[in-house]
Amino acid sequence: MKKLGVPLGVLLILVWCLLPVVWIISLSFKSEESITAGNPGFLPGEGTNAGWANYDKVLTDPLYDYFPRAILNSIGISLIATLLSVIVATLAAYAIARLEFKGKKLVLSLALVIAMFPVVSLVGPLFDMWRTFGIYDTWIGLIIPYMSFTLPLAIWTLSAFFREIPWEMEQAAQVDGATSWQAFRKVIVPLAAPGVFTAAILTFFFAWNDFVFGISLTSTEAARPIPASLAFFVGADPFNRPASLLAAAAVISTIPIIIVVLLFQRKIVAGLTSGAVKG
Amino acid sequence: MSTTVQTATAQGKKAPRPEVSDRSRAENRLGQKLVLPAIILMLIVTAFPMLRAVWLSVFDYTLTAPDDRNFVGLSNYLTALSDDLFWKTTGMTVLYMLVTVAIELVIGFIFAMVMHRVIFARGVVRTSILIPYGIITVVSGFAWQFAFSYQNGFVNSWLPGIEDSFNWFGDTLPAFIAICVSEIWKTTPFMSLLLLAGLAQVSEDMLEAAKVDGATWWQRLWKVVIPNMRSAIMVAVLFRALDAYRIFDNIFVMTNGAEDTASISFLTYRQTIEQFQLGMGSALSVLLFLSVLLIAFLIIKLFRVDLAAARQE
């Protein structure tokens, strides 16, 4: 019993996590015609395997030209938001982990509140404000909220990492006559890089994933990111979603996530678990 | 339970030493400078719009008639609070929260125990657990919607006792189940990772001692493991509960609020963005915000969640 428990558990986890992913891949190979007619079953039915046709269509057919554009938007917006958010969070986390100052509690409390904030509450006023400022339906209009909402996670993750750094090296640098700022830049930044990198991955996931801002603060393909674009996918028949095309687009949008996970799984797990709970 | 320790100033802690106070003043200034950008950014997108929502909520204001803005006081709130739809939706949202968090806690705990004990294939397990975490929620919603579809899905043929032609999205309960499945699938890994961190804190010595004293596996779980990771469990539940209360993406994609599956976030979105009722939508936004605060407060008070553990003070 005891010997079997863990392998069984592993199997359970693998099936749980991968089955829906395999399913969406399988669906993306079902031909469009068969989807319209009904093609039940886990794998494409007899003679209904469309090969790469669905992928080809969502990437090259002018009818779906908003999807490649959405990929571009998502990559651009997520990367810029991640970069800026991590810079700001690094400064804050360094201060929280290292310095004594008035207002430390305030920052942490604020981060906690923001992490729990009901995003939809902001949609109305932001929609209104962004149109007034002229940043509605632009990249910057999405980058700003993404930065704000990824900061708590980034700050937590980073301050957890920064507590683990051997700070004596910084003091050594200061003894050698470096200012706080120099010590920070020359000694700490290289040491902190792995933590910063992990925070960046988590931040990127959040931005890549966002749906609420994506549908509320954009109206055209100028800035519409992938999740919002997927939700507005229409096929030939407006009452019947083009499931196989959507599946193909979904698989494409999942590829970056899978690559990042494959390369950095250890870092991501460390980041998620260190930033959240400490006894 | 850790009590709050105020470490605001060096002077407050110990007698001020002249050579320290200069430094500590500089440190104080530097610290505040470094956190300022983060504070500003977090407030710009939350506090300011929230105040604006409070302001807009006392007007009868529709985007289709922007010049026709009338002050109506609290009438938007009264309308919302006296409407059955608002309460039904709120009830539904609480139901989503309770069902998904309860199931996730159990499955997440099992996953965490497996990951804690696993020796072989660690990387594989870690990689697969992160895929649902990283996948776009909308994609998860679509994947499950199509899986449950009787036209192109597989769930009906896999489940014994379910007609192949059964429409999961034709009635409230099955549609609710389908939405919960997608939500649970996507967020259980996150829960299990938080619980894994908690498990790592349970001392092996204690477990060994319990074993020597003849405690069964079940007793060890309830008497040693769970009490020792109480704060990790509570923080995970708090985070997930508030996250689940905001459920939106899956509902939007899978049912678009049909069959009474709408959540309070979805209702707010619909009023604001689809129907341009900024006044009413803002009133709902404020109510949504207040209900999240209330839930957070209740969870923290009821379970005495040690937030310091989450904030690492």
From TrEMBL, chain B:
Residues 1-25 are annotated as: Disordered. GO terms for cellular component: plasma membrane. GO terms for biological process: transmembrane transport. It is a multi-pass membrane protein. CDD domains: TM_PBP2. Residues 16-25 have a biased composition (Basic and acidic residues). Keywords: Cell membrane, Membrane, Transmembrane, Transmembrane helix, Transport. Its main location: membrane. It holds the Pfam family BPD_transp_1. Belongs to the binding-protein-dependent transport system permease family. This is Sugar ABC transporter permease. It comes from Nocardioides seonyuensis.
